[in-house]
Amino acid sequence: xxxxxxxxxxxxxxxxxxxxxxxxxxxxxxxxxxxxxxxxxxxxxxxxxxxxxxxxxxxxxxxxxxxxxxxxxxxxxxxxxxxxxxxxxxxxxxxxxxxxxxxxxxxxxxxxxxxxxxxxxxxxxxxxxxxxxxxxxxxxxxxxxxxx
Length: 148
Ligand code: RTP
Ligand code: MG
Hints:
41% of the residues lie in helices and 16% in strands. The protein is an alpha+beta fold. The structure holds ribavirin triphosphate (RTP) and magnesium ion.
């Protein structure tokens, strides 16, 4: 089953949007398979954003990610990589559509609340960068027949 890596950035945690983000992914029908609140090391932040290392915003981006805890998550489901990117919205919150996380809550490109893997291969790389295999749980919903 397809998996993606999402990270609620320091601004999302500080603005108490952790529950809201999780709710939107749960409501869509995706399955949470990994979750941790963590302080990020300089090394991990630099590796994660390695693709942007020549960009002018790289230093301030890494500095922001290590400044305060983040919530790292792995979500599972059909088409979850692309779908989570849609739920998150465009990079610049001022261009992001209402109804998306960034469109509803973001105000600044450098404070856009959440990261989501941009492709299946990127997701695989990011999941193994942020999580050990034993930190991830594969599980099935066995409550459905019991509740309905
Ligand atoms: P992310 O990787 O965080 O999910 O965001 P994204 O794919 O939508 O955007 P990306 O191009 O990968 O950029 C990574 C993060 O860098 C910051 N950024 N600042 N012009 C700027 O100042 C600028 N451009 C990008 C954003 O926080 C973006 O999420
Ligand atoms: Mg990106």
